[in-house]
Amino acid sequence: MKKKSAYLVGIKGVAMTSLAVYLVEKGYEVTGSDVEDIFPTDKILKEKNIIIKKGFSANNIDKDYQVMIVTGAHGGRTNIEAQKAKERGIPTYMHGEFLGSLMEGKFGISVAGCHGKTTTSSLIAYLLHKGGFKPSYAIGTAEINGLGPAGHFGGGKIFVAEADEYMTCPNSDPTPRFMWQSPKILVLTNIEYDHPDAFANIEEVKDVYRRFIDKLGSDVVIVACIDNENILKVLSGTNKQVITYGFSPAADFRISHFYFNEGISFMKVLHKKIDLGEYMLQTSGKHNMANSLAGIIVAEQLGMSHEHIRKFLKLFTGCKRRFE
């Protein structure tokens, strides 16, 4: 049986490389194109035997691929290779659109917010992998420490992804990227004013988050950090199930005490009035305590015991960053 084939324009970007690895592991023959600059993802793509064509040219589209995926970084649908694919009748998707399609039929876990998406989604993928859930994931970083490439076809029913409020394609489709996703669990880390080319002010940002939440199914569980005032405003009046977390005394899951010791963080967590005990983290900073608590809640929602969560959490050391 002939393998399915996929062509990725701008394949060296971290999110595209994650997607490329996922597709290879799912059985696709993957080809891509990008600029000649050295990227931290070059090693990953080489190890997966993915052919990378130098530069962008209509001549690169020399056969009928089953699918083409395009990133907004190189002109999106206006890229010359996307135009050639259209001429040849090759189904073409923007990255956000295709990522959303992968979640269809799966138990999707989406992590949204202006900061912390990558760390939180990487941690969730790590905990679920260690817990034997066989999750699939495609996350916008080169590698997750302890797991390898940030894209993986796990074979299980769970799919973990970041959910970005930015435009699907700056040149042709202003649809916020997360609108293509329909998760069963949505994590909201924070909402702040970002992407001034897409939003005039914070009110427009909050409005698009409201629209995203409103379109989700009635069975969605929203795991939200209520230390962030904008999240409180966005969730006000929602009829969806919400589990709150943070340092706030009003949070369902609250970090009541914390301290640092030689690069290791410790936090004590209360679930309402129930003491869940202490958790050790190898990621530093209060923001990573909040991110970790989101991961704890998601793992608990899926049935993982706190004994196992505590065991796996202290092994997680983060992910490779863009400029690392």
Describe the structure concisely for a colleague.
By secondary structure, this protein is α/β, with parallel strands linked by helices. The chain is built from 9 helices and 17 strands.
Pick out its properties.
324 residues, globular, alpha/beta, 10-stranded mixed beta sheet
Question: pLDDT under 50 segments (min length 5)?
Answer: none
* Helix/strand order: EHEHEEHEHEHEEEEEEHEHEEEEHH
Calculate the terminal CA-CA distance, rounded to whole Å.
41 Å
Shape: globular
Our Rg estimate from Cα atoms comes to: 20 Å
Largest sheet: 10 strands, mixed
Structural class: alpha/beta
Number of discrete helical segments: 9
Query: What percent of residues adopt helix (DSSP H or I)?
Result: 25-40%
Largest sheet, spatial ordering of strands: 8-7-9-6-12-13-14-15-16-17
Quote the beta fraction: 25-35%
Determine the oligomeric state from the structure.
Answer: single chain
Could you tell me the number of beta strands? 17
What is the typical, i.e. mean, pLDDT? 94
Architecture blueprint of SSEs:
Layout: E1 5-9, H1 14-26, E2 29-34, H2 42-47, E3 51-54, E4 67-70, H3 80-88, E5 92-94, H4 95-103, E6 107-112, H5 117-130, E7 136-144, E8 148-152, E9 158-163, E10 167-169, E11 173-176, E12 185-188, H6 202-215, E13 221-225, H7 229-235, E14 241-246, E15 253-261, E16 264-271, E17 274-281, H8 286-301, H9 306-313
Parallel strand pairs: 1-2, 1-4, 2-3, 4-5, 6-9, 6-12, 7-9, 12-13, 13-14, 14-15
Antiparallel strand pairs: 7-8, 10-11, 15-16, 16-17
Helix pairs in contact: 5-8, 6-7, 8-9
